[in-house]
Design a protein that fits this description.
The protein has one domain: Alpha/Beta hydrolase fold, catalytic domain (Rossmann fold), CATH 3.40.50. The chain contains six helices and eight strands; from the N terminus they run βββαβααβαββαβα. Helix content is about 35%, strand content about 25%. Helix 3 crosses helix 4. The chain is of the alpha/beta class and about 240 residues long. It is globular.
C-alpha cells in the first residue's frame, strides 16, 4: 500500500479553489470517494488527515475547499469573517459544494457513481446543504455540524442517505435544532440517522479544538463511536 496525494485546483464563479486528494495506488481501478468539508477555519491539516485516513480504508479522500486557494483563518474572528458570507448566501454555499463534488467525480481514480461527503462543524452544515439541494451523492455525514435550515430548499426531495454524529450538549446545535432537523429530513423523504452522544459538546473529533469557553471539547469516546458509525454508514452507501 502506497498512499498518493495531489492538489486539485478548480473554479467556482471566478474563485480559484484547491482540494487535497489522497488515494491508495494499490487499489486498482476507480473506487468510491468521500469528500471532506472543512471547519470554519478553512481546509487545513485536520481535513487532509481525514482524507489520508479514508485513503487507507480504500476510498479516495478529497478535502474540498469552500473559501479559496490558500485561504485560512487563524482566529475565531477571522474564521467568522470567512464563514459568514456563505452562511448568509446558502444558494452560493450549495453551488460551491456541488462544484466540489462535480470536480471529485472527474478524477480518474474515482467511481463517479459512488461518491459520499462528510463534514466537520461548518462543513457538517455544508454537506447537509449538499443533500438538501437534491444532490445524488450516495450519502452525507455531518460530524458535530450546524443544523441551521437554509430557507431555499423547501419541497426538494433528499435522496442522499444522511447521518448526523452529534454531541447532545453541543451549544452550537442544541437539542431543539436536532429535533427540527429530524422533522425537516423526514418531510423531505430522507433516509436519515442521528447519533447523539451524551455528555459531549462541539468539535468532539478534534484534539486541538479544546476551548471550554466556546463549548468545544475533544472526546475520545465519542470520536471512537463516530468513526465506527461512519465506517458502517459508508459501507452501506457503497454496497
Amino acid at each position: 500500500m502506497t498512499i498518493q496525494t495531489r492538489l486539485v485546483e478548480y473554479q467556482d464563479q471566478g474563485t480559484t479553489l484547491e482540494a487535497f486528494m489522497a488515494w491508495d495506488d494499490a487499489v486498482g481501478g476507480p473506487r468510491p470517494a468521500v469528500a471532506i468539508a472543512h471547519t470554519w477555519a478553512g481546509r487545513s491539516a485536520f481535513e487532509e488527515g481525514k482524507a489520508l485516513e479514508l485513503a487507507e480504508q480504500g476510498y479516495v479522500g478529497f478535502a474540498l475547499d469552500m473559501y479559496g486557494k490558500g485561504v485560512l483563518g487563524s482566529s475565531p474572528e477571522e474564521n467568522t469573517a470567512l464563514m459568514t458570507p456563505l452562511m448568509e448566501d446558502r444558494a452560493a454555499l450549495q453551488q460551491r459544494i456541488n462544484t466540489a463534488i462535480a470536480t471529485l467525480r472527474q478524477q480518474a481514480e474515482v467511481d463517479p457513481g459512488r461518491v459520499a461527503a462528510s463534514g466537520y462543524c461548518f462543513g457538517g452544515l455544508c454537506v447537509l446543504d449538499l443533500a438538501r439541494s437534491g444532490s445524488d451523492v450516495s450519502g452525507v455525514v455531518s460530524l458535530h455540524g450546524l443544523f441551521n435550515p437554509p430557507g431555499n430548499t423547501g419541497g426538494t426531495p433528499i435522496t442522499a442517505r444522511v447521518l448526523c454524529l452529534h454531541g447532545y450538549d453541543d451549544p452550537m446545535a442544541k437539542p431543539q435544532s436536532m429535533l427540527e432537523l429530524a422533522a425537516e429530513l423526514s418531510a423531505a423523504g430522507a433516509d436519515w440517522q442521528v447519533h447523539a452522544y451524551g455528555n459531549t459538546v462541539h468539535a468532539f473529533t478534534n484534539p486541538q479544538a479544546d476551548n471550554a469557553a466556546m463549548g468545544t471539547l475533544y472526546s475520545p469516546t465519542a470520536e471512537r463511536r463516530s468513526r465506527a458509525a461512519m465506517a458502517d454508514f459508508l459501507q452501506e452507501c457503497f454496497a
